[in-house]
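Q: Can I see a sequence and its folded structure?
A: Here is a first one.
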Amino acid sequence: MSAEMQEFFALFGAERRPDPYPHYRRWRERLPVALLAEGMFAVSGLAEATQVLRDPAFGHPEPEYLDPADRRPDQPVDESGRVVRAFLSLNPPDHTRLRRLVAKAFTPRMVERLAPRIDEITVDLIDRAPSEFDLMTALAKPLPVEVIAELLGVPLDDREQFAEWSHAMARALDPPFLQSPETVEPAVRARQSFIAYFRELAAKRRSEPGEDLLSALVAVSDAGDVLSEGELLVTLTLLLIAGHETTTNLIGNGVLALLRHDGLGPAAAAPDRVVEEVLRYDSPVQLTSRTAVRDTTLGALPVPAGSQAIVLIGAANRDPASGPEAFDSEAFDPARVPGKHLAFGQGIHFCLGAPLARLEARVVFRELARRRPDLALNGTPAWNPTTTLRGLATLPVRS
């Protein structure tokens, strides 16, 4: 193993989890693009990371074909035996077709229709919390799962199970070198249960459609094209994790940053700016990857077709190039005019759920500032043992 590879792995050690950013900075300043091993690159500079996310020379490996003996219930396949993936992991034209179908169902109007309900749930959760509480348990975790469950039309009694599946599946999003059987096996079981649950619920929505997103996805068509059952199920899995886990992390990371700064005051004055600064400063998504679909270059390095580029979003977002000249990229400034960040990706894979995540976080920051203006830390926060998705397990507070 190369010295660069060893140093790269060390970036994600448990002892660095509370604050990986000084280590990211030193790595980025020395190696904005690093060759870790043959066919594997680490990208931490903002310009280079943006190139990877936007350049058509980078995409995803083609879905593999599975022998019938190797198929699992949580791995839908198409009629040819090819693994069905969510559009986030596909290249055009498959990505274009599926994203267009999902976007026709997951409309801005559908998100906006949820705004009053998000206000209602947020206010209720904040008002029910005692003077000393864990913000993650009381607010940051239940709010997004309530919202995504309402969006999809999940019955109220099933929502706790819904959240457990989401958390288990999210832990398996880390790269293989950061995983263990203790994370992979529960994720597989959770995915199997989730797929079985939504296969049955989708069948009900076909015969008894409602006004929820699941009904819209079941019915959506584009010039006669529709989502297959496998495409529907993997899309729902993506929406669950992206709509729940990452928003939970955005809320927790944001409240922690505010409380370590000067308190919740900026959230009352300009919650939109707070949301964008949190996304830049402590992004809920820290890593993503792309594969070179043809020979290309990155920085000064040649990148052969088939190479993997691991993008350190958390490092790139703190590149000084993300703001104006004399910008202190390592400082949290919730009053700052929003600059560049990659928290929702770039290019054709830009997060479809970004408006919903921004809406939920904006409401939470605003209502906490109004209803708990004296909120303060009440102990040491604990971080989840994950890297791709960065978020808190606990955030003890008092008001």
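Q: Show me another, different protein.
A: A second, unrelated one:
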Amino acid sequence: MAQGILSGLTVIDLTQNVAGPFCSQVLGDLGATVIKVERPGSGDDTRAWSPPSVGRHSSTFLALNRNKSSICVDIDSIEGRKLIADLVATADIFIHSMKPGSAERRGLGWDDLRKINPKLVYSAISAFGSSGPLSSLPGYDPLMQAFTGVMSTTGNEGEDPVRVGVSLIDMGTGMWAAIGILSSLLARVGTGEGANVEASLLDTGVGWMSVFVSSFGASGEVPRKMGSAMAMTAPYELFTAADGSVFIAAGNDRLFAKVCGGLGALALSEDPRFKTNPERVHHRHELHAELSRLVRTRPVAEVVACLRAAGAPCSEMNTVDKMLTHPQIEAAGIVRPLPVADCADHRVVALPVKIGGARGARFEQPPELGADTDSILARLGYDPKQVAALRASGAIA
């Protein structure tokens, strides 16, 4: 069900880097036909984001571009823009990640394309959004982590802020765009009309800061870096064990009692300093010291086993290699093989959602640059002479 839920829908994808390609990959995983439009000669920037690479492919490009075909079009040429219009005429979804105003100057804005196809769901992904003094500026994930304050809350107190390693703003923006697109497709069933979906890195970054914004409004205190800890509850952080680290999370008094029981120190749950969450937050340093004393001489596996047996939320601190070999990851079935040239055992992360109890099973290799240009043009009705003329003019490659 998951792999065919969008079957029959066509996506014209003029995005690159991370946010847009992640969005279109989600749609492709769900069964949509995704036509990736790339610059002649170089294509998506992430094709060159290496090392690391898998054979001749950038690992970043491989992670974000499965289940797509590739056509090379110069959208700055008159012929190229005409070709995009031909693609849009029979498409369902159009996605781009050009700076606000760039698509419009090329005749590829929402108002332009809906005249060609009133049923088109149009999605523009940008850095700062379509309005405001910074709207014309480019942006990348770490830049937006800094601008929206995400980076200011990440790291250890007294040390420089650090970037969240995962491109959570880029990928989150891709998710919001996909949600907006899917919602618009649902609405189209009733209205018969398309919609203009906007997503920006700015909105996503501010969205991820929702709890911090609310906390600041309530207390007037600027949220600060707390390492692995959390301001509003304790314990909710990493603890150093004899051979690694364990994250312990007690989101309420009942769970804190289970933490204490699992560590063989039930009396701590009755200590007046720690009996309620507000008291634990107030005395977080003393609490951390008490729990550290119970954890630091014991192996990670022992601590985790005791806490889980007691029903206390916890986790060993895994690196990527350890995470990938954990039996739970195998049972989840979220990491799947995607053989590519020069690497028969390459693996990728599947769509992180199940529909009807199953994940999408569609796993087609990311496309070679421009590999599908001729076949896509043939489907549009271009004959070989017209294709040759377009190639000679530089409109396609």
